Structures are given as C-alpha cells and as structure tokens.
Amino acid sequence: MDIATIATVLAALLAAWPQTQRPFIHVQHILREPHSPLRPDRTGNAFKPDAAPRPGEPIFRNAVNGAFIGTALETCCRAQQIDTAVLGGLTTDHGVSTTTRMAVTPRVPATVVSDATVPFERTGPDGEHQ
What we know:
The protein is an alpha/beta fold. Helix content is about 25%, strand content about 20%.
C-alpha cells in the first residue's frame, strides 16, 4: 500500500472519528539529521493534507520511534481518560510498532488499523520483495 492510500484511509478515519466522541491525537516524527526528509524544514515532514490535524487536536512531536518516549502523550492519555489507542500512520515497523508495544506501559491497550499503516519496502525470507 502506498502513502497516498494510507493518507486516504487515515482521512476516512479522521472523518468518522468525531462520531465516536473520543479524542484524536497526532504524533509527528521529527529527525534532525542533515539529509533526512523528516527534518522539520523539509516537505517530507509535513502531514498529508487529508490526514492533517484539525483545530484543537493535539500534536506530539518526537525524534525516536515510540510516541510515548520523550513526550507528554501518556499524561495526555491519562488526563483525557483514554482507555484504548487506535493507531495508524508511518511506519508499521518503527513508530507504529514501538508505540503499540509501549502503550502497555501506561496501560492503554492499542489497536492498529492495518490498512492505515505501511512498512518500509523489504525482501522477505521467501525472496519476495514487498
């Protein structure tokens, strides 16, 4: 699945989410390496327009794979009495995976929306490139 498709799925999730009466929290991965596309001053770091935060939706920025590391995300979840996290975004094998595993620490069970996340390309053990 490509990034544009993921953004479309996230946009649909964002559009439907207000009906659930639950908060939507965004996490933005920021890197400082000179040539990284995820530097704050690079276009690769921008939210896709269809999945961009809406007014009032919190944004947590971090420079490591897990959204709970070095941010106030856990405090925010506790303050808003969030009892389940629903996750999507980039990438499955880094930020989404680490955040999902770390959600256990603040005792916030996590669900990953599988068609709202994408891994980096790789060749599997069977030799198939995905």
